[in-house]
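In response to reviewer comment 3 from the previous cycle, which asked for concrete evidence that the modeling workflow produces usable outputs, we include below a single protein chain processed end to end. The sequence was submitted unchanged, and the resulting structure tokens are shown without manual editing.
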Amino acid sequence: VDCSPGNYQRTVRRTEDSFQACTDMVSCFQERARVERQYAQALSEWSQNYPVSLCSGPLYGSLMKAWQCFMSSADRLASLHASMCRALVSEDGDRVRTWQKDNFHKKVFGGFKETQEIETGFARAQKPWTKKLKKLDKARQAFHKASRREYLIREREAHAQGNPDVNIDKQKKLQEDLQLASQEVDKMRSRYEKVLEEVNRYAPRYMEEMESVFDQSQDEEKKRIMFLKQALLSIHDHLDVTTNESVRSVYSELHNTLMSIDEQEDLRWWKNTHGPGMPTDWPHFQEYNPEKKPNVMIGGVKVRALYDYVGQETDELSFKAGEEFLKIEDEDDQGWCRGMKDGQWEGLYPANYVEVV
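The workflow returned the following structure tokens.
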């Protein structure tokens, strides 16, 4: 464990790191919200692009209803993803920002009050320890300096003993210097060991005071972690479509519609409408009859559109599923009726696209 002064700075910075983590989380899931909104818009546009071409396309019967169900399902899913977008922004994002505001109090000159409290606590606990470490370092340096001096004198004294050029007086002086240097080393060693003992005796108290502040920091961090865990779980709940009843309902209904595709019924309808089962007007002798006006209904019969229909010719009537209008002429031999919409638009339309109200 690093016991040098200032070793607590990473723990102190954790408060500001937590604040930044909240900011990053909000930014991240706002971007996810944009993805959900764009997906919802794309689904909605897709579901609205095909119904017209479906009704005027080659499909019919239960197969066409199944295809139309894909379109309506997409529209419902678009609403669901739009609500997910709103939840991520208005619920989850606002919750994190509110928690940030309540738990991180900015100082006038920068930083946070919570950061200052932890840093002040650590500095107060470490102040006596820092002084003792400085005293210890000073004693260590003095001991090493004395030891180095003794080492150099011992080297010179050993070299002088075997050298005939060094006179007796100088050798004696070197021996005296060596003795004094050794005594200084012993003195510095004793002082160094004494200071070291003081530091080691104080270490448990230092650790106790530092751990007290550290535990306080841990408690604050625990609250942050627990909150962010709940925030992430809330985001998960909003994004998890696997447990969403609305999604289950959409796909359940879609699956049931697909399973209801009945090839026999569709083939029967085609046979009776466009095949040998349809009423056949076999050639027969026809007397001359003056032309009669079409069978115009007085006031008309109210009908409701089952499907969307876009007129392909200028004399055809266009309408959307669910619209109501008047049938003013019965179905002709080609399966067309004449109708009037909004009291002014008149035209032909497929008889099997409506039902009588």
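The radius of gyration is 47 Å. We consider this sufficient to address the reviewer's concern, and the full set will be provided in the supplementary archive.
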